[in-house]
Give the backbone structure.
Amino acid sequence: MKRIGIFGGAFDPPHVAHAALAQVALAELQLDELRVVPTGDAWHKTRALSPAPHRLAMAQLALPSCPGVVDPREIERAGPSYTVDTLREFNALWPMAELS
């Protein structure tokens, strides 16, 4: 069974702790893959976030040792971002995978 980790957040800005958490998650949880998902329209944030394309680019730059793991789906989705919607999408893509 494929093991896929989901790491969501604003990543505004991403920092060394985000990169460290990604590396530890891959190793310690024995993940086959880790998806970093910057939030789109963060309805729960009281402050304005940097533009979504900038946060996506920053997340990609902050995780150079994990190419291809930054997932734009919440940024590309219209309206507020809800984790449950993202998890449903991942579950539909990989119905036999274990999501963490």
Observations:
- Helices lie at 16-28, 52-62, 73-76, 83-93.
- The two ends are 13 Å apart (CA to CA).
